[in-house]
Every structure is written in C-alpha cells, then in structure tokens.
Amino acid sequence: MDCFKLFEQTKKKLFFIAGPCVLENLDLALKVGEELAEIRNKLGVTIVFKSSFDKANRTSLESFRGPGLDLGLKWLEKIKKITELPVLTDYHLPEQANVVAEVADILQVPAFLCRQTDLLIAGAKTNRIVNIKKGQFIAPWDMKAVVGKVESFGNKKIWLTERGFSFGYNNLVVDMRSVPLMAELGYPVVFDATHSVQIPGGRGTSSGGNREFVPCLAKAAVAAGASGVFMEVHPDPDKALCDGPNSWPLNQTYSLMKKLLEIWEVVYEK
C-alpha cells in the first residue's frame, strides 16, 4: 500500500487500528483480520491490522511473547495479502526496522521506548508511517522532542498514540487534554482504548485490565478530537495469551466502531 496515500486518508476520517495483542497462531490472526476486513467494508473506513511478532516487554519471563521476527512477518504478510488491510507491528531494536518495513505499512514504537533516539531514527529512515506511543511517564508536550527526532530525517508521516499515564502503582489514568495537546504538533492522534484500561503488573506475573471501560474512554477520545482509535481485539479475550483482561471482544467490535464513527460524524462532519 502507498504509505503516503494511507497517511493522507487517515487525516480526513476517523480510522481504526485493531487486532490481537500478539500473533498467537496464524489461523486466529487470519480470522480476526478477515472479520476486520468485513467491518471495513460495511463501515467504509480505514482499518489497520495490528499484531506483534514479539512482546519484548512482558511482565514475566514465562509469558508468551509470540512467534518471533521471521515467522511473525511471514504471517503478517499473508494476512495483509488475503485481507488487503494495511499492517502495523512493533519493532524493538533499530536493526529490525528495515526488515519490518518490508511487510508493515506502519512501524510502531512501543510506549516504553518512545524516547529511544536510535529506534526513532531507524523507523524514520524506512519512510513508512511511524506510530509513536506516548510513554506512560511523559507529558503530551514532551512528545515535541520525540517528533522532532523523526522529522529531522525527513519523515513527516507520524501518528502519536495516547495510552494513559502512570498514576501510582499498577494504575493508569487518561487525561483527555492530551489529545488536543498532541494534535497541536500537527499529526493525527490515536487513542489506545484498550491499553488505557490496563492494570500494569496487576496480576503479579501479568497485567490486569478493566475492558468494560473501553467504550466510555474511546467515545470521550473521539469527542476530544482523536483521529484514530486503537483496540486490541480477540475472539475470546479471557483465553488470550497476552493482554486478555483489557482486550475487546471481536464480536462486539463492529457495534463499537459504528458508534464511534457516529460520534465522529456528529462532532466533525459539516
């Protein structure tokens, strides 16, 4: 897919990033991708398929991380071909950027790594869209310096993602002012509706979450000016191998996306 064309599309109408947190197996990921492609066709919106080939920041060493770089990219490439959805995935090391960019339309910088200069530069140089998740530890206005690192290498295809701020131990809160504040930097702002209801490390060896608050926060973010909504979705969240407690059920995804699109149209359509 033409990344410039995709980037311009996402500046004009509410878009979605969705998929299972991690690539558990090809069949499950493809099932989710095909369902998302149907939703795209019904709603006439841009949906980006998201899933990670490796979750390098899991709470426990025993936690499932994914199939790894090589196999994960093969699966993502197949999903992209069959569903015709653009693909987004994380990268964790500068040397991964070019390899990931051969398949992914969007390279995602994880929140914990959003200030890592070499990682940002590597992503910028691929000339793909770079989705930078705002760290749970920095203010929205601090993203100006982060954006500047990518811009300095000539890449102005940037998304900024709000995913909550650490508020004490094992807790996140969302300040909706972050959406318009980051939008002032001139790039689309995405709201991560599922990670924002996460309880980091809340289960001791894994993170917990309160998925019942996903619709509430997503609606508020769209009303506040978010250009996109990020949701990790799964056919059976309680059995997901990663981030299940905060993942949204796949069979409820269409109705939530439809409602969010209706809110966007009321607020922004003329």
Write a structural description.
This protein has 270 residues and is an alpha/beta fold. The chain has a single domain (3-265), classed as TIM Barrel. It has 9 helices and 13 strands. The strands form 3 sheets. The protein has an 8-stranded parallel β-barrel, surrounded by 6 helices. Strands 7-8 form a two-stranded antiparallel ribbon. Helix 2 runs parallel beside helix 3 (69-83), helix 5 (117-125) crosses helix 6 (143-151) and helix 8 (214-224) packs parallel to helix 9. The radius of gyration is 17 Å and the shape is globular. The two termini are 29 Å apart. Its EC number is 2.5.1.55.
Fold blueprint:
Layout: H1 3-9, E1 15-19, H2 26-43, E2 47-50, H3 69-83, E3 87-90, H4 97-101, E4 106-109, H5 117-125, E5 129-133, H6 143-151, E6 158-162, E7 165-166, E8 172-173, H7 178-183, E9 189-192, E10 198-199, E11 208-209, H8 214-224, E12 228-234, E13 248-249, H9 253-268
Helix pairs in contact: 2-3, 5-6, 8-9
Strand order of the largest sheet: 1-2-3-4-5-6-9-12
What integer value in Å does the Rg equal?
17 Å
Number of domains: 1
Instruction: Tell me roughly what share of residues is in helical segments.
Output: 25-40%
Tell me, what's the shape? globular
Summarize this structure as a short list of keywords or feature phrases.
36% helix; 9 helices; two-stranded antiparallel ribbon; TIM Barrel; lipopolysaccharide biosynthesis; globular; eight-stranded parallel beta barrel; 2-dehydro-3-deoxyphosphooctonate aldolase
